[in-house]
Amino acid sequence: MDSNLSDVGGGPGSSATRLVWARVMQGAVEDAVRAYEAMAAGHRERVLEEALVVPAATRDTLVEVLRQARDFAGAARLLEADGDDRAAAPMYEQAGAPLLAAEAWLRVGEQARAAAAFERAGSLEQALALYQALGARESLAHLLGRMNRPMEAAEVFHMLGNTHAELEMLRAVPTDDAQRPEAVLRMSSLLDAEGATWRALVLLADGLKHATGAGAAMLQAEQSRLLRQMGLASPPEGGVAAEKAPPVVDGYGYLKAIPIFDGLSLEDMRDLYRLARPVLVPAGTTVLEKGAKGGGLVVLLEGMVSVSTGPGPEARQLNMLGPGAFLGEISLILDGPVSAHVRAHTVVRALRVTRTDFQYFLETHEAAALRIFRLFTQSLAERVRALSS
Fold this sequence. Notes:
CATH superfamily of the largest domain: Jelly Rolls
Number of strands: 8
Shape: flat
Structural class: alpha+beta
Low-confidence stretches: 6-11
Distance between the termini: 61 Å
CATH class of the largest domain: Mainly Beta
Strand content: 5-15%
Mean pLDDT: 89
């Protein structure tokens, strides 16, 4: 037996850990993995303590043993002890220890990765400070939304030109908040700019029910301006009726109805909806190209699309889809090619959730991610059964 494997002073190779150390020092990694996996938790902890006094080369072998044994936290601890934070950080992430990962990323100057890890760990103020320092405005805006700071989030989304997310944040300002009149005014302006002036008037009428003082005066002034713009001297008798506003399909209900999102909480659904990007597709334009890398989820709000076996004239049409239909949900999770060709039959208004945005959502909403993966697996299994029957 190697002289390093003694019980003297409780050093490496104590009676409970000797078998693992013998295999490690022989370079028999697979045998060492099996021996380590068979140990009780207390003995595995003893191995990690003993590892601090062995030569660096031996410790490197043990790190590989821990990786293969799936003790990612143990491997990260040893790497961190050796000052290799760059290797330790992803190990901590695999171990489900995002706070330790964030601190390791920070030590090696990887501020963006540290910020994302702090956010996953729930250390939102630390993440916020890093996003601000980095000028990462989109991440900053989403984080402000999660922190229930909707007016600040709306301002950042405004700078980004993301009207959809800005409106969502402004809607989230409570009716009893002192900033609610300002939020209503900004929403009214955005809706009017989109040609939805009736919706803006309905919103202003509702806002006036809760506003007082200067806030009420500000909303009344905007209401008067929009009425003059529409050629009306005053609100219709009985006020602005909601039923006079044209019906609006914003896509939230369609998104919520997609099976893999079933059971998500209200807050998680609103966060997911805020990540969606409105798109307008001219008639005849390709929405999804067969064989191309999946572009994420597309939810149809208005118009029709044609689904076919390919782009050419010889392709066979498989289906025509309209409002409420969704495409590309598999590409949110599986990075594979599109299986059919989808073309806009008419002008199409839709929502798109990109794979990148969806991955961010999964990383920052652990409970929602677990639910989505479970339902996705069930859906995939049902498709396989249907194809094999």
